[in-house]
Write a structure and sequence with these properties.
This protein is α+β, with helices and mostly antiparallel strands. 38% of the residues lie in helices and 10% in strands. The chain has helices at 19-30, 47-57, 62-75, 79-83, 87-94, 101-116, 125-129, 136-147, 156-165, 176-186, 192-205, 224-228, 347-359, 367-375; strands spanning 245-254, 260-264, 275-276, 283-284, 301-302, 307-310, 315-324, 333-335. Strands 1, 4, 5, 6 and 7 form a five-stranded mixed sheet that branches. A three-stranded antiparallel sheet has the order 3-2-8, with no helix packed on it. The chain binds a DNA duplex through α2, α3, α6, α8 and α9.
Length: 383
Amino acid sequence: MPDEAPSGEVTRPRAQTLLAPRLLAWYDRHARRLPWRAPPGTAAQDPYLVWLSEIMLQQTRVEAVQPYFLRFKERWPTVEALAAADIDHVLTEWAGLGYYARARSLYACANEVAERHGGKFPRTQDALLELPGIGPYTSAAIAAIAFDVPATVVDGNVERVVARIFAVETPLPRSKPELRDKAATLTPQKRAGDFAQAMMDLGATICTPTKPKCSLCPWNDACVAKARGIQDELPRRDAKKANPTRRGIAYWLVDPDGAVLLRKRAEKGLLGSMIEVPSSDWIVGATPDVPDGAPAAAEWQRLPGIVRHQFTHFDLELTVLAATVKARNTDGLWTLPDNFGDVALPTVMRKVVAHAMKHTAYTPNDAAQMFEVAEKPKRRKKI
DNA sequence: TAAACGTGGCA
DNA sequence: TTGCCAAGTTT
């Protein structure tokens, strides 16, 4: 029997109205302290920092985001500062975090906010949804966390918590609409931002994908999955098909100064707008023949070993070929390894760099030191 | 609707 | 070593 619901509020059984206060009480005691998060129940947070953190957190763990968030916050403290930045500097700062379309959308969004919204983020979910890189999750998260709008925030954590609380046995992603609707029945009218973060904290620390810590859960007495003993099996998922393996060749070309030829990838698509060691196409099947995709004619020497990398939808195996040239005979970004930290090299390309520097002695003096630079470019000097 | 789109930690 | 999958969005 549904309660009488105030206008705009989701109708829900009476028992469910008790759940949100219990979770908020748990959150008041157990909220993780994160650099983008104000303490529970305190003043509103800077919408710019909420937005920045939420974009970074898309499909990305808190631990991976933290150093990136702190560097962005320090370097670009406001949305106007970010909008005024050089996009390549933004991509360089993003390098290693993955899903690089997020960084391009981040920059586009900053410019829209700066130019069309007077530097202020819109306060409604619908208006936020219009901005680049902001979808259903992020619009709800910003509305709730930055503006205290009672929006329902649904991410992977919330889906897992809700699937267990209500024992939803339909596999993901088919169950998404049902999980969203059930999550909406839990969302309170007040402290929706804290509630959203509480749900995500609960999912991240208690209601974990494997071995959930039900004894510590503020909702354990209400959880249908736990009552049935199937909490470890939920949420179910449709089987995924195996990833294919693609193969290619990376070309490590060095000039007499020790500068290495790099180039910028196509603006969009895989690793869009990022910097790479020139390479062939990456194709399913056998490794392409030399000199497929080679940036110049040279006496290419195959380096021992292979560079492996896993993307979301395929595995990659790169053979690395190296050569030296007497002059910079082809266009590109000839870059000294000391400066690799200043370019937007994605992780797969850092692996190529590390591999090439390990197996070439093109700088006889201290290849080892340069290898270290390639392996750990995150601690780089300011540009 | 389904595929594309990164990376890293952990079992 | 391999597979899972995480504070999702875009096309």
